[in-house]
Structure formats: structure tokens, C-alpha cells
């Protein structure tokens, strides 16, 4: 910068305003004037006429003119008055700059005679300019570590004025750090220097704004200012600082991964890179680094993997904050994990019995322990099973339990229990664990097999095929397995004479009963025995039932004709007197049927007769009577074919041939001819012999009857019977005769037929009546009870020949 107007004070004192008058003998006369700059146009400078010694009017007459060096009309000459006036504002700085003294040269020309004068006009400076700085603002960057007394050269200001009006001093706005020192550059110019008086602190005042003032020496002085911005440059003089040495935070263990936990923000007063902090976990364990992460720029701590209170309850983490300059600081972060009820109770079965025998109280079923990994209420547990089960839980040690049966179990009532052990903790929310145990009740042979009925009655038609399935007995056993496997058997009958083993057999497995042989109703009508059933338990249990077998009668017996004998070579021949009245009892066919009931109801019928209409047969009792009076014309010999039929389904029948001989009187004895009977019906040539034979037989018969009656009369004189030995009596219920094997042959039809044989022939035998063996209500004289015979043969009608 150029400092102008470097006039010495002494020179300026010499250039005081004066007018030098006088003419130079050798050269043109010159006058000097001085005028301050910046005067108004028209301002009076001097009276030139007077100064040059010219008279008034001479100037105009001599045509005075002012000629300047630079042909500028700075001045105006009043020709009338001779006054020299300013024709324009004179600016010293414009005309002369920093040149001093500033002089304008003029010539005043006069004619008639030509004459010129020199005029020097000194232009005096006034303080019309203020000091100015080139820059409105000056930026200074000063490190805060700058030492005291350090000087900072500042740009100088400029003032166009010169001399004392020029720049004289610098000052600075009041501040605590800087003062200004004015320095002389040696060539008259001065410049300011900022001097650091007090240490700067970036952290306190990162920048300062000062005003530098330049002052000139005018009166009054003028000033110019510039603004100085001082940026205090930071140095890394501050380590990062945590607001707290220890951070404590509580985190629920179920906090989601990635959750924000805390921000440990350190502060560094330094700026820029020195204030940039990065965070790390300092010497962190593997656990910590696995579980947490810290954002190196923001200091936020986040959860990286899930927490587990049960594994680690707290973490102590050292966090180091480091700034860009390498300064660091630590703090401690204590993270406490809070328990959350995140663990359900656990049940650990130590031993378990899946099969419990019935009938045994206080049996150990299971031993188990329970556990909850949570703490506090979250880990307190309650253990229970269903109420309605015959089992109880018994705590043994802490968290150890046994499950025992409360009372004896009954497998037959319930053979399986599903026990749910429920363990609930007291946390919020409550967590529970269920463990199911299935207990099977094993069987004990505590139930005897039982027959479905206490007695069974089976009906078997006689003449069954052998091995016929006649029925079943059935038993059940409420136990299970072998205890329920049952075997049927026949028990020995109470009656030792019953040959049970040959009659029936039983299938041991299913209780089916079979007849071993064909049964004969006539031999055995009913029998009973016991069947037993035994299970396979140990010890085995058994029970028994009565089986009663009824043999059903079948019409399997043909009526058997007792009289007259049918197989004899000398058949019976009835003798009938020709004088017999109608209804005369010729004979009575006697037949029996071993069957019973309807099968034994017999009816008689005349099938064929030599002379139909002569004889009639009573259907129900077999009596053969004459139907009309006999006459001489009737043949002497008659042959009647009778049919005896039972009422079975289908009916069975037997035929009887009856020979009747008509005789004129019982006086004529007839001796039967053996061959006559056989051949009677066959050939006509034999008729004669037959007649003879019949006659003889009839007579013999008559004789026999008479003799027999006589004998009977003698024997039964006491009984008062008048008739012969054949005594039909009582009523008859129908046309049938019941000769059932049960001995119910009506007593009215009990006959004693006595044929007293004479003549030494075998054909006539003493025939005893047919007597039922079972209770006979009346006489019972001729009944010979023979139990053995009855039982073994099955015939309950006995007869004796
Ligand atoms: C400059 O100004 C200061 C303060 O105003 C003053 O103390 C000092 O004397 C001045 N210097 C000169 C040379 O006038
Ligand atoms: C760290 O935090 C900053 C600011 O919150 C974020 O912009 C940046 O992505 C984060 N860095 C990581 C690795 O998360
Ligand atoms: C246990 O049994 C109960 C009832 O039978 C059933 O609801 C439950 O699901 C079972 N629990 C398990 C774990 O099998
Ligand atoms: C006739 O039958 C009866 C009874 O069955 C018997 O006792 C008798 O010997 C038989 N007579 C002849 C000759 O066959």
C-alpha cells in the first residue's frame, strides 16, 4: 500500500498561504496564491488586478486571458473587478494525487503590449477522505494453541488525504484476546498488527468478530473500519466424555432381537475430526459380543441375539469412546436381564409303571420331578392330576413326586386310566405343562366264571342222530386273558347209575353239548347232570350249572298187539254162540304202544271181514262185538282183519287177524287144528278143516274160560267180583286208549287175560295182563317192580309171559 502525502511537518509549515508579489526583471512576473480544495464554484481566490498593479479597466482593455497548463478552465477572471474566482471545484486528490505541494500553473496574457504573468495556485488539502480498508471483512484462522504475544499482520487502510489528514492510527473493538499494534513500515506508512493477549479456546469461543478501526489525523478525525473474523482453530485438546461413568439398564429377557437398549453418548468438546467419536465394546467377552452390538457412530446399543435369563442374568460391558485424535474414555454399562415367564414347567419321569395289578392299594405308579427354569413366581409350580381318579400325588422331596393308587383298583370296572399330570407355574401369564400317563390295570383272577343261567333245560327228540348238537351252555368270566379263558366240563352225575359219559359230551371250549348216541324216549325220558366251567387263572375259579335233558317222544313204536297173539302157529279163535245177542262181546283186541302221549293213543278199526256187517269193532277199546243176530245162514268161520293205529304223526299201525267161529253151543267142543289157523284164509278146500279146527279151538277156549272163571271166582271171593277175570270197568274218555309208558293206562282197561292152556299145546299160554310199571293206583298185585330193568332197558312197560 502506498502511503501518500508524506510531507514533513516542517515543509508544510513553509507552504503557508502567502502571495508573493513582485516582478522579476529577467522574466515574467509571477504571483502565487493558495486555496483550499473543494471550495464552491465562484469562490474568490484573489484580486489579480491589484496584485499585478493594473488599473481597473486595464484588464478588459488589454483583453486579459488566463491560460492553464492543462487547458482546463479551473479559474475565471472577472475583467471588470480583476477578481480571480474558482471556475470549478478543485479536488486536490484528483489533481495531484499524493504529490505535495499541489500547484496549478496559470498564465495571464495581456495585450497592448503583450505581457504575461505566471500565476501559481497552491491547492491546500482538507480532510475530506476517510481511511478505507480494501476488504470489508478479513478472515483470520488462528489455532487455539497459538502462544501469547503472537502477532498477526493486518492489511493497512488507505486515506487519500495527505499530511495530518492521512491515516494516523489503528484501534480495535474492545475484546479480551487481541490488541492492535501500529507498526511503521519505514516509508511513512503504518500498518496494524493484531497481538494475541490471551489464549484462545475453541471450545469456548470458536470464533471472534472484531472491528479494526483506522483513524486519520484530521480534525475532526475520520475513520474507516473493517470486520475481522477470527476462527479459532480446534486442536484435540478434549477427550470424549461420558455423562455418566456407569449406566444401568434392565432388559426383559424376551426383548426382541434388534431392539434398542440404550445410547451411551459421549461428548467431545473438540470440533471436526477431533470431536468425532467412535464407540466400541472394550475387551468384551464372546458372550457380550454375541448378544449386543454398539453402533460405532451413534453409540446406540442394540440387542443382537436373544437373552436368556436362565443362562446369564447380567452383563457388564465396558464401552470405549474414541475421538478422531485418538483420545478415549470408558464407561461401564450394566445390563440386568429381567426374568420373563418364558419357560414352561418341565416334567421328568424317573420311573413309570404302566401296569398296575388290580386289588392292590397304594401301588407306586410313577416317580417324577418337575422343574421350571424361571425364577421367582415364574418358577413356582403347582402340580396336580384330575380329581376323579383313584390316584394321589405325594410330594416326596422338593419338586419330587410319586403317583400312587389311592385304593384298590378293579379292572372289571375300569381297566385303563389316562392320568394327566398338570404342572402350572405362577408366572404371568401362567404356563403349564401336561404329561399324560396311561395306566393299564392288569387282571387278577378275582372273578369266577359264571353261567348265563343257573340251569338249562334241553329238549332232544328221541332217535336223534349221534353227535347231534343238542344245545349249549355258556359262561362268562369278567377277568381278562387267561383268567377269562374258560373250559367247560361235565361233572359226574349224582346218580352214579347214569352213564353220562356215553350219553353226552361237551365241547370244552364253547360249551356245546352233543348227544353221543341216539336216545330212546322209551328207555330214558329225562336226565340231568352238572356242567362245570373253570377259568385258567391261578388259582383257577370255577362254577357249575345244572343241565336237564328232556327226551322228546317220537312215534317210533308200532302198536304191539298183545292179544290175540299174532305169531302163533295156532291163532286164537273166538267162539261165538249162534244164539248170541247183538252186541255180544266176541273178543277184545289188546294192544300197547311203547310211545307216550298221542303216539300211544290207539284206535281200532275193522279193516276186512269175511262177512261185513256181522261184527263191529269199538274204535277206542278194541272190543269186537256182534252187530246183529246170527242166523243159520251165516258161515261158521269168520276172519276179521283189524287195524290198530296210534295217533302219532305219521301214525303207525299194526294189523290183527281175528278168527271167529260160530258155534251152536258151548257143548260142542272144538279142537283147534294147528294148520287150520294158518291156512284158514288161504284156500277154500281147507274150509272144512278150518271149521273143524275152529270148532275145537272154540270149545277148548270156552272150556278154558269157564275153568278160568271158576278159578278166579274161587280166588277172589273176597273182592266181591262177580265177573270173570277180564274186568273192563269205568268210563272211557274218548275213542282212544292211553297206554302210555308212564303207566297211565287207565285202570279200567287193565286186563287179565288168562288163557289156560290144555291139550298140551304151546300156543296157549298163561298170559298175564299188561301192567304199567309206574305207579298203579289200584291193586298193584301183578306189578312187579324192577327198577333195574326199567332203567337199563328204558321200557317202562313190562309184561311177563
Ligand atoms: C493511537 O491511538 C491510541 C488509542 O486511541 C492512543 O493511545 C495512541 O497514542 C495513538 N497514537 C498516536 C501516534 O497518536
Ligand atoms: C449407526 O447409527 C447411525 C445414526 O443413527 C445410522 O445412520 C447408521 O446406519 C448406524 N449404523 C449401523 C451399522 O447401524
Ligand atoms: C393329555 O390328555 C388330554 C386328555 O386326554 C389331552 O387333551 C392332551 O392333549 C394330552 N396331552 C398330551 C401332551 O398328549
Ligand atoms: C310169538 O310171540 C311171542 C311174543 O313175542 C313169543 O314169546 C312167542 O315165542 C312167539 N311164538 C312163535 C311161535 O313165534
Question: How would you describe the overall organization of this protein?
Answer:
By secondary structure, the protein is mainly beta. It folds into six domains: 2-124, Immunoglobulin-like (Sandwich), CATH 2.60.40.60; 137-233, Sandwich (Immunoglobulin-like); 246-338, Cadherins (Immunoglobulin-like), CATH 2.60.40.60; 346-442, Immunoglobulin-like (Sandwich); 450-552, Cadherins (Immunoglobulin-like, Sandwich); 685-793, no CATH class. The protein is 9% helix and 37% strand. It has nine helices and 50 strands. A hairpin with a 5-residue loop joins strand 11 (178-184) and strand 12. The radius of gyration is 86 Å and the shape is rod-shaped. Residues 1-26, 667-683 and 718-801 have low confidence and may be disordered. One 2-acetamido-2-deoxy-beta-D-glucopyranose is lined by residues 168-169, 171.
Kindly list the characteristics that best describe this protein.
mainly beta, Immunoglobulin-like, four-stranded mixed β-sheet, 37% strand, calcium ion binding, disordered C terminus, five-stranded mixed β-sheet, 801 residues, single chain, 9 helices, cell adhesion, binds 2-acetamido-2-deoxy-beta-D-glucopyranose, signal, 6 domains
Summarize the model shown.
Its main location: membrane. This protein is mostly beta strands.
What is this structure's SSE topology?
Layout: H1 9-14, E1 30-36, E2 44-47, H2 48-52, H3 58-61, E3 65-68, E4 75-77, E5 83-86, H4 92-96, E6 102-110, E7 115-124, E8 137-143, E9 151-153, E10 167-172, E11 178-184, E12 190-196, E13 207-216, E14 223-233, E15 246-252, E16 260-263, E17 277-282, H5 286-291, E18 292-294, E19 300-303, E20 314-323, E21 328-338, E22 346-352, E23 355-357, E24 364-371, E25 381-384, E26 391-395, E27 400-405, E28 416-425, E29 432-442, E30 450-451, E31 455-461, E32 468-472, E33 475-476, E34 486-490, H6 500-503, E35 504-506, E36 512-515, E37 526-535, E38 542-552, E39 560-563, E40 573-577, E41 585-588, E42 590-592, E43 601-609, E44 615-617, E45 623-626, E46 637-646, E47 653-663, H7 674-679, H8 687-715, E48 737-738, E49 771-772, H9 787-793, E50 797-798
Parallel strand pairs: 1-7, 8-14, 15-21, 23-29, 31-38, 40-47
Antiparallel strand pairs: 2-5, 3-6, 4-5, 6-7, 9-12, 10-13, 11-12, 13-14, 16-19, 17-20, 18-19, 20-21, 22-24, 24-27, 25-28, 26-27, 28-29, 30-33, 32-36, 34-37, 35-36, 37-38, 39-42, 41-45, 43-46, 43-48, 44-45, 46-47, 49-50
The chain binds 2-acetamido-2-deoxy-beta-D-glucopyranose (4 copies).
Amino acid at each position: 500500500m502506498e502511503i501518500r502525502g508524506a510531507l514533513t511537518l516542517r515543509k508544510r509549515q513553509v507552504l503557508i498561504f502567502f502571495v508573493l508579489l513582485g516582478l522579476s526583471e529577467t522574466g515574467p512576473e509571477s504571483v502565487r496564491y493558495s486555496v483550499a480544495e473543494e471550495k464552491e464554484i465562484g469562490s474568490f481566490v484573489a484580486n489579480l488586478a491589484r496584485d499585478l498593479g493594473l488599473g481597473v479597466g486595464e484588464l478588459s482593455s488589454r483583453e486579459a486571458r488566463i491560460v492553464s497548463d492543462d487547458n482546463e478552465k479551473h479559474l475565471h477572471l472577472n475583467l471588470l473587478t480583476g477578481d480571480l474566482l474558482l471556475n470549478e471545484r478543485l479536488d486536490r486528490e484528483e489533481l495531484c494525487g499524493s504529490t505535495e505541494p499541489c500547484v496549478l500553473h496559470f498564465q495571464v496574457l495581456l495585450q497592448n503590449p503583450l505581457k504575461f504573468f505566471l500565476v501559481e495556485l497552491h491547492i491546500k488539502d482538507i480532510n475530506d477522505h476517510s481511511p478505507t480498508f480494501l476488504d470489508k471483512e478479513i478472515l483470520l484462522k488462528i489455532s487455539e494453541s497459538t502462544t501469547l504475544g503472537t502477532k498477526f499482520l493486518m492489511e493497512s487502510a488507505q486515506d487519500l488525504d495527505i499530511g495530518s489528514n492521512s491515516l494516523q492510527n489503528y484501534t480495535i473493538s474492545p475484546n479480551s484476546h487481541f490488541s492492535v499494534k501500529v507498526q511503521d513500515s519505514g516509508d511513512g506508512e503504518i500498518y496494524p498488527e493484531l497481538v494475541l493477549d490471551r489464549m484462545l479456546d475453541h471450545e469456548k469461543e470458536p470464533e471472534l468478530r472484531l472491528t479494526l478501526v483506522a483513524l486519520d489525523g484530521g480534525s475532526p478525525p475520520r475513520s474507516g473500519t473493517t470486520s475481522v473474523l477470527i476462527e479459532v482453530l480446534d486442536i484435540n485438546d478434549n477427550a470424549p466424555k461420558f455423562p455418566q461413568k456407569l449406566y444401568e439398564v434392565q432388559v426383559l429377557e424376551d426383548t426382541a432381537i434388534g431392539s434398542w437398549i440404550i445410547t451411551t453418548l459421549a461428548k467431545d468438546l473438540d470440533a471436526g475430526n477431533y470431536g468425532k467419536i467412535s464407540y466400541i465394546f472394550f475387551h468384551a467377552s464372546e458372550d457380550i459380543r454375541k448378544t449386543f452390538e454398539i453402533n460405532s457412530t451413534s453409540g446406540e446399543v442394540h440387542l443382537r441375539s436373544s437373552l436368556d435369563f436362565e443362562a446369564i442374568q447380567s452383563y457388564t460391558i465396558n464401552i470405549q469412546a474414541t475421538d478422531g485424535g485418538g483420545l478415549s474414555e470408558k464407561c461401564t454399562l450394566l445390563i440386568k436381564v429381567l426374568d420373563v415367564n418364558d419357560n414352561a414347567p418341565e416334567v421328568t419321569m424317573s420311573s413309570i409303571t404302566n401296569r398296575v395289578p388290580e386289588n392292590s392299594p397304594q401301588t407306586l405308579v410313577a416317580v417324577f420331578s418337575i422343574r421350571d427354569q424361571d425364577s421367582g413366581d415364574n418358577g413356582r409350580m403347582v402340580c396336580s392330576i384330575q380329581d376323579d381318579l383313584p390316584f394321589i400325588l405325594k410330594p416326596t422331596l422338593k419338586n419330587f413326586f410319586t403317583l400312587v393308587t389311592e385304593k384298590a383298583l378293579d379292572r372289571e370296572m375300569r381297566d385303563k386310566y389316562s392320568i394327566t399330570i398338570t404342572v402350572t407355574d405362577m408366572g404371568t401369564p401362567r404356563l403349564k405343562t401336561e404329561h399324560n400317563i396311561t395306566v393299564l390295570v392288569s387282571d387278577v383272577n378275582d372273578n369266577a366264571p359264571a353261567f348265563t343261567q343257573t340251569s338249562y333245560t334241553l329238549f332232544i327228540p328221541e332217535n336223534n342222530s349221534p353227535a347231534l348238537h343238542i344245545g349249549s351252555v355258556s359262561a362268562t368270566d369278567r377277568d381278562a386273558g387267561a383268567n377269562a379263558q374258560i373250559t367247560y366240563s361235565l361233572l359226574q352225575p349224582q346218580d352214579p347209575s347214569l352213564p353220562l359219559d356215553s350219553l353226552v359230551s361237551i365241547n370244552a371250549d364253547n360249551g356245546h353239548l352233543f348227544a353221543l348216541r341216539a336216545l330212546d324216549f322209551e328207555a330214558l325220558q329225562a336226565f340231568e347232570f352238572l356242567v362245570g366251567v373253570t377259568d385258567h387263572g391261578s388259582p383257577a375259579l370255577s362254577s357249575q350249572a345244572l343241565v336237564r335233558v328232556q327226551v322228546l317222544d317220537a312215534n317210533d313204536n308200532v302198536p304191539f298187539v298183545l292179544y290175540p297173539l299174532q305169531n302163533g302157529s295156532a291163532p286164537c279163535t273166538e267162539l261165538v254162540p249162534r244164539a248170541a245177542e247183538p252186541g255180544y262181546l266176541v273178543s277184545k283186541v289188546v294192544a300197547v304202544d311203547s310211545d307216550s302221549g298221542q303216539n300211544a293213543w290207539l284206535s281200532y278199526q275193522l279193516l276186512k271181514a269175511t262177512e261185513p256187517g256181522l261184527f263191529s269193532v269199538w274204535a277206542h277199546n278194541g272190543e269186537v262185538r256182534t252187530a246183529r243176530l246170527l242166523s243159520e245162514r251165516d258161515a261158521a268161520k269168520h276172519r276179521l282183519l283189524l287195524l290198530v293205529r296210534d295217533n302219532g304223526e305219521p301214525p303207525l299201525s299194526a294189523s290183527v287177524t281175528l278168527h271167529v267161529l260160530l258155534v251152536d253151543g258151548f257143548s260142542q267142543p272144538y279142537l283147534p287144528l294147528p294148520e287150520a289157523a294158518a291156512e284158514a284164509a288161504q284156500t277154500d278146500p281147507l274150509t272144512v278143516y278150518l271149521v273143524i279146527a275152529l270148532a275145537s279151538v272154540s270149545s277148548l277156549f270156552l272150556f278154558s274160560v269157564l275153568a278160568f272163571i271158576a278159578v278166579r271166582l274161587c280166588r277172589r271171593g273176597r273182592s266181591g267180583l262177580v265177573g270173570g277175570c277180564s274186568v273192563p270197568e269205568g268210563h272211557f274218555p274218548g275213542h282212544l286208549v292211553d297206554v302210555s309208558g308212564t303207566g297211565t293206562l287207565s285202570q279200567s282197561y287193565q286186563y287179565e287175560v288168562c288163557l289156560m292152556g290144555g291139550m298140551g299145546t304151546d300156543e296157549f299160554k298163561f298170559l298175564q295182563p299188561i301192567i304199567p310199571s309206574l305207579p298203579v293206583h289200584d291193586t298193584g298185585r301183578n306189578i312187579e317192580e324192577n327198577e333195574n330193568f326199567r332203567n337199563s332197558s328204558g321200557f317202562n312197560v313190562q309184561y311177563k309171559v
